[in-house]
């Protein structure tokens, strides 16, 4: 519902002529800029923690976050903001990455927390959450997609570069939705810790995937998927 035609009131008439100035009004609603979305999976964390606050990054995870931060800084882009999941492992990953990107504002959100987005097809035997979890988490993760993954606002004049630090399930679901692939296939993708996924959203709403789970900037002995 972000096509220009969906953003105007077709019943509204021009006061002087009594005719719709449809072309000019459509032009006013058209996006002009491209959005670059960098989806970062959090680094390796302590799997033995019972509560979220105990699931802190491991020493290797902190190294991974440093490498990811260095990679993002080396791109030479003017990042607009870092939006991150409020879970501990994502917050800690963000804090380390942000040291390499001084001045970039950080925003925490519950929408990007890890969860079960939709029942995978085909099903897997090693991961079977309760059915209710799909309804609870799925609605939230879909809300995250609709809230964050869209073409630029018509008022945005320059291209933007935004970082989202979150979780594998969230990123995989977002990629499927953004590319108009069946979202039930999200679990067929695998993402390394600290990996970079790059989506490009053009002014006309078309989406391209530039990178999926890239960790080519990490030494092989630093790469994990836990």
From TrEMBL:
Top-level class of the enzyme under EC nomenclature: hydrolase
GO terms under cellular component: mitochondrial outer membrane
Catalytic reactions on record: O-phospho-L-seryl-[protein] + H2O = L-seryl-[protein] + phosphate; O-phospho-L-threonyl-[protein] + H2O = L-threonyl-[protein] + phosphate
One matching Pfam family: His_Phos_1
Subcellular location, principal: mitochondrion
Nucleotide-binding keyword on record: no
Localization of this protein: Mitochondrion outer membrane
The keyword Hydrolase is assigned to this record: yes
Record keywords, A-Z: Hydrolase, Membrane, Mitochondrion, Mitochondrion outer membrane, Necrosis
Family label: Belongs to the phosphoglycerate mutase family. BPG-dependent PGAM subfamily.
Designated name of the protein: Serine/threonine-protein phosphatase PGAM5, mitochondrial
Protein's organism: Thinocorus orbignyianus
């Amino acid at each position: 519902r972000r096509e220009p035609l969906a953003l105007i009131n077709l019943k509204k008439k021009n006061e002087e002529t009594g005719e719709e100035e449809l072309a000019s009004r459509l032009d006013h609603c058209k996006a002009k800029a491209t959005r670059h979305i960098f989806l970062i999976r959090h680094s390796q964390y302590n799997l033995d923690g019972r509560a979220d606050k105990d699931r802190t990054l491991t020493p290797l995870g902190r190294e991974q976050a440093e490498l990811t931060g260095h990679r993002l800084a080396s791109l030479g882009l003017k990042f607009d903001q870092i939006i991150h999941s409020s879970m501990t492992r994502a917050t800690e990953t963000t804090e380390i990455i942000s040291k390499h990107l001084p001045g970039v504002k950080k925003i925490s959100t519950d929408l990007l927390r890890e969860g079960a987005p939709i029942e995978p097809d085909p099903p897997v035997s090693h991961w079977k959450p309760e059915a209710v979890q799909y309804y609870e988490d799925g609605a939230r993760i879909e809300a995250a997609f609709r809230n964050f993954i869209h073409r630029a606002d018509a008022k945005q004049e320059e291209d933007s570069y935004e970082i989202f630090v979150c979780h594998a399930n969230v990123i995989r679901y977002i990629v499927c939705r953004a590319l108009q692939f069946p979202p039930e296939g999200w679990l067929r993708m695998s993402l390394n810790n600290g990996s970079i996924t790059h989506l490009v959203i053009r002014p006309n709403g078309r989406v391209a995937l530039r990178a999926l789970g890239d960790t080519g900037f990490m030494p092989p002995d630093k790469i994990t998927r836990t």
